[in-house]
Design brief:
Strand content: 25-35%
Number of domains: 1
Low-confidence stretches: 83-89
Distance between the termini: 18 Å
Number of strands: 5
Helix content: 10-25%
Order of helices and strands: EEEEHEH
């Protein structure tokens, strides 16, 4: 987002977005969960530039929540949204 000639991180409510979340659960032979992969195509900076603390941001929350529900390790993966946008031009 451009403001007064500066590029800042901000929500773009009118912009294109993909709300698809892909979840893959890997089970052992007895159908017990081994791991979970969560894919969500967004930049992991919900806290933006105002945040001066070290944080896992939303991927950390997703990982922790999925691990509590599935009771197995989880990995949060993200796509490259900027690459997706440029491909359409």
């Amino acid at each position: 987002m451009q403001t007064n000639g500066r590029t800042i991180v901000a929500q773009n409510w009118d912009g294109e977005r993909d709300t698809t979340m892909t979840i893959i659960r890997l089970d052992d032979i007895d159908e017990r969960p081994i791991a979970t992969i969560v894919g969500y195509g967004t930049h992991p900076i919900v806290l933006a530039h105002q945040n001066r603390m070290i944080s896992p941001d939303y991927p950390g929350t997703v990982k922790r929540t999925v691990e509590e529900i599935v009771v197995a390790p989880a990995c949060s993966c993200r796509a490259a949204p900027a690459t997706r946008s440029r491909a359409r031009r």
